[in-house]
Every structure is written in C-alpha cells, then in structure tokens.
Amino acid sequence: MSLLKILVYPDPALREPSKEVERFDSELGNFIRDLWETMLAYDGVGLAATQVGKNLRVCVISWKEHRLILVNPRITGTEGEQIGEEGCLSFPGIFEKIRRPLKVRVEAVDEAGKPFSLEADGFLARALCHEIDHLDGRLMIDHLSHLKREIVRKKLLKRSKEERKKP
Ligand SMILES: [Zn+2]
Q: What is the pTM of this model?
C-alpha cells in the first residue's frame, strides 16, 4: 500500500477526461486500495483517480456509514437542486457554495466489474456529482461565476508561490 500524491489546481492533468476501466485485475484492486488510503490520510470525503494523475474512471467516497467504490460511474438521473458548501483536496483551503442536484441516481460497477446502481440525496448526492465531475475533467470552480473563479485561482497561485519559497 502507498499514499498517492494529490494534484492541486491548476495542474493541467485535472482537466483530462478519464478512460473507462476495461481490466478488472489485481492492478486495479491495488490502485483502488491506494486511492482509498490516500483519501482517508488527507481527511477527504471523496477522491477521484484524476486527482492523483491516473486517467481512469474510478472514484471513492467515504461519508458517515457510506463506503463507496465506483468504477465507470454514470449519473443516470437527477432531481431538484441544493446549494451548499463544497471543498476539494485539489483546492486546499477553498470552500465555496455550489449548486448541485438534490437527488441523483448513479450506475457503476464495483472493482470486480459487477454492476450496481444507487440513489442518493443531500450531501451524498453532492459528493457523487463532485467526484464524477472529476472523471470528466470538470472541477468545482466550473460551477462558480467567472469572478469567483478568478478569486479562487489567484488564491491558489499565491499559495503555491508561498509553498515554493519555504526552505
Ligand atoms: Zn474534488
């Protein structure tokens, strides 16, 4: 098991759309375990393969009693809307109010390739939308106004410059 490096915005790899998983082998299983451990180590609610520079449609979510491993997930239905605060391990220290569907239906397969579907609402629906967005190269700031997006971008650029100055 090893912890993976999480890419921080504006890393261009975060914009890459991910490829469907076709091989359900031990390599995939090991990657999913590393992704899971990395999410927990950084106290995240969710983590997508895109965020660790792996171009595969895989994401994990751990929230309350929910432990989700989603391979090749697709949102197949949405209902209503909600506005709530969202954060992301690729946007350290940034929390913004974002509009999402209130309910979602998701179809996916597990790490062995077995199909399943689930319905979620509230915060879990938000987390599913956020992680599945990552797999399409979409980021939470894409849901913000142009002005807010610029503010976030400048904050993170300033922070990365300060990080580089540290010995
Ligand atoms: Zn994220």
A: 0.94
